[in-house]
Amino acid sequence: MRGPTRSSIAVPAGRAVLGDWPQPQVIVREDATLALGRSGESFTKNLVTMRLEGRFGFAMKRPNAFVDVALAG
2-37, pLDDT tens digit by residue? Predict the structure, then answer.
């Protein structure tokens, strides 16, 4: 069965990454918080500064579930 394909600028031309995508897991260590700021020069220019912070981890239970492949031209 063929899964979905995606393009990425992180993978060079002539290469591909094949994997069992349900294997990796994002772990939330701390909920994300959103801060908004409109003070100083941002107020006079009608701008809003936004910052989103959180603590997250990335777990790979089976690293061999992903491979780097050289494509034949």
Answer: 667 778 888 888 898 888 888 889 999 999 999 999
In a domain, 9, yes or no: no
Is residue 38 domain-resident?
yes
Contacts of 50 by beta carbon, 8 Å cutoff, 6+ apart: 34, 35, 36, 37
**What is the identity of the amino acid at 37?**
G
Confidence of residue 53 (pLDDT cuts 50, 70, 90): very high
Domain assignment of residue 62, yes or no: yes
Q: Does residue 63 belong to any structural domain of this protein?
A: yes
Q: How far apart are the first and last CA of the chain?
A: 23
Which range of residues forms the domain containing residue 38? Answer: 31-73
Looking at the structure of the chain, the number of domains it has is 1
- Tell me if the pTM is above 0.70: no
**CA atoms of 39 and 7, how far apart (whole Å):** 40
